[in-house]
Amino acid sequence: MTRLIRFNKPFDVLPQFTDSGSDGTTRKTLSAFIDCPGVYAAGRLDRDSEGLMLLTDTGRLQAWISDPQHKMAKTYWVQVEGEPDAPAMAALAKGVELKDGVTRPAKAHLMEEPAQLWARRPPIRERKSIPTSWISLTLKEGKNRQVRRMTAAVGFPTLRLIRHSIGAWSLDGLSQGTWEDLEIPTMPVPAKPSHLPNHRAQKNRAQNQKAQTKQKQDGQKQERKAPAGRSNKGRPPRKS
Which residues pair with 120 in a beta bridge? Predict the structure, then answer.
């Protein structure tokens, strides 16, 4: 039976069940919170980020949730250093130039500190002389550490990052470090072979159309270049 759960990941927890390659480590993993054999994460959430993770025991559901081609929106609550102005917010929404390309358009707006927000341990490092602000940022892509790089690029470094929602699922009503089962969603039915595009046939049609267009153009050029017909003017009449 397919299973889907949501988990509110705390700060400083690895988004996996084992800490491979780190013998003797004391780093926490998902296994410290989730005793649910056979499930695995549908997408990642960095160790230094908090918030919503979805886990499932079904590969197709995992791919549907995490694959960027399905463009499932993810909303983040971002605490940044400073007070972002209108140009900075517009840049986040329009797209920011990063080393690996320009980010896709996003939804970005300033927000109040989330109500009933849990305390982070350890707390963020704040500078008394510089205020902090909260931003709601909704993306439909997943570049490596994208949110942090985006806010840094517009001049407001990220201090705390919480993923609030993935598609229709959110953190609402879920305490930090806890998880619960969810109803299984209805996934889109994969297209049947007969409904899939025949790329070879499409390519052949395009080539044929191109050849026909070129043949027609060549014919028109030849007509323009052909010598005009000889005139009978000035010739003596033929004798019968």
Answer: none
- Whole-angstrom Cα distance, residue 4 to residue 62? 9
User: Is 216 inside any structural domain?
Assistant: no
Domain containing 151 equals: 73-166
Cβ–Cβ < 8 Å for 104, 83 = no
Catalytic pick among 12, 19, 23, 46: 46
Residues 12 and 53 in one domain: yes
**Biggest CA-to-CA distance, the chain:** 119
The tally of domains found in the chain comes to: 2
- 37: nearest Cα among 57, 54, 53: 57
Which H or E run contains 40? strand 40-41
In this structure, the answer to whether residues 111 and 154 fall within a common structural domain is yes
| Tens-place pLDDT, residues 204-232 | 777 788 878 777 777 776 766 666 555 45
Is 46 one of the catalytic residues? yes
- The pTM score is 0.77
Answer whether 40's CB lies under 8 Å from 135's CB. no
